[in-house]
Amino acid sequence: MSARKDNHEYIINQLVEGDQKAFKQLFDRYYSFAFNTALMYCSMEDAEEVVSDVFSRIWHKRQSLEKVGSFKNYLFIAIKNQCFNYLRKKKVDTTSIENAFHIAHLSDLNPHQELISQELEDRVRQAIDQLPPKCKQAFQLVKEDGLKYREAAEQLSITVNTLDVHVTKATKRIMEVVKKYGIGAISLIIDIF
Prior knowledge:
Elements: H1 3-16, H2 20-39, H3 44-60, H4 71-89, H5 95-100, H6 111-129, H7 133-144, H8 149-156, H9 160-179, H10 185-192
Helix pairs in contact: 1-2, 2-3, 2-4, 3-4, 6-9, 6-10, 7-8, 7-9, 8-9
């Protein structure tokens, strides 16, 4: 077992016992992943609320984490479900999204999945390359370079709302590509971004 995995398990165990520092470490480690996952399904404002709600729920139900095999998978599913709950409250039809991104399981890729993953990554890269220049820059700064919205907006000399429009547009185009791959594609796309 690697030192990183041992440390991760230690943090989870400390969190289960109510250690707030362990919670903060887990939050800091996974916030970007959680937020980017939420952005795949909903707006920036909703994504922030979804992530906050999910981490709050994790703290309040921390004892249940003992039974979780992979925290990252658990977090992904929690974020996805909370996004769907938000979308349903807004009366958005989530059926096509749920069908396209149904997760059978997140595991190591077999050779066939690796081939599909590579093809999907190539198609996603093509979709990104075909975006309008500002849209492409906004997406890359936020999703690939990991900048916060405020930082990316300043770098592009645009407002945060305009940046959100660009990132949302880019994400929708990418999701159109991913939807064509159907079941399990979302588990493959996680490793791309």
